[in-house]
Amino acid sequence: MALEKSERKKDNYNFIDLRGQQFGKLKVLENEDYITKSGHTYFLCQCECNSEPKYVESYNLKSGHTQSCGCLRYENKTITHGLTNTRLYRIYHLMKKRCYKKENNDDYKNYGGRGITICDEWLNKENGFINFYNWAMVNGYQENLTIDRKDNDGNYEPDNCRWVTIKTQSNNRRSNNLITIDGVTKNITQWAEEYDLCYSTIKSRLNRGKTGKDLVAPARVVNFRFKYNKGEI
User: Fold this and answer.
1) Which of 13-17, 162-166, 194-198, 217-221 has the highest mean predicted lDDT (pLDDT)?
2) What would you report as the CA-atom Rg of the chain, rounded to the nearest whole angstrom?
3) 22-26, 106-110, 156-160 — which is least confidently predicted?
4) What predicted TM-score, i.e. pTM, was given to this entire model?
5) What distance lies between CA 14 and its chain's CA centroid?
6) Which of 68-72, 77-81, 205-209 has the lowest mean pLDDT?
7) Rounded CA separation 130/128 (Å)
8) CA 74 to each of CA 54, 71, 126, 131: distance values in angstroms, whole numbers, following the listed order
9) Which residue has the higher pLDDT, 107 or 160?
């Protein structure tokens, strides 16, 4: 649209001089004349990205509809690269929610409430998701895997995170019962798999005060000892 300079009627009480004001990344140039066209006022603006100055309608400036020469919209699009609706973006969003959204979030107490944070590389507004995305792509991300912290007391950061199955992540939960037998520490699920026992069997023995080898002994051995101690044998 070709714009031509014209005089603004002095009796137009709706006119507001925006010269010298800042709107988003746009600075309205102070020493430039404004332009009117079809009853609308345009001001010459310089964007912070130092692109060529352009005329912007005053209404779009005041309403916040236009906040840059167009570079801001491009930057926001670049941040997600069209990945907003992907599973990986949902994982990233939920990771931030666990660590920083306290209100109406039951998971917060186990993450942000314990001081768990996200590293600056993944958290910064400019390209945090892209950094997280790139890390995921070169560190084994697959659609059937979930993000897991190697150290459950550590933060979300490249050196402390990995992609694992749901089963592996469950084994790594800090809420699991850890049992040490002959100097080796594992959770109940891992001991049950190693000795071909049911989870409930070891859990029951643990609740009855059993320790060490008695927790993973074959069921018939435990039954024999139980009956012997009861005087039945």
Assistant:
1) 162-166
2) 32
3) 106-110
4) 0.44
5) 46
6) 77-81
7) 5
8) 17, 5, 12, 18
9) 160
Average pLDDT over every residue of 72-99: 77
Check the CA dihedral 48-49-53-54 and report its sign.
Answer: negative
In angstroms, rounded to a whole number, what is the distance separating the alpha carbons of residues 126 and 99?
A: 19
71 pLDDT more than 80: no
Please state, in angstroms and rounded to a whole number, the distance separating the CA atoms of residues 140 and 160.
14
Structure token digits, residue 132: 């997280």
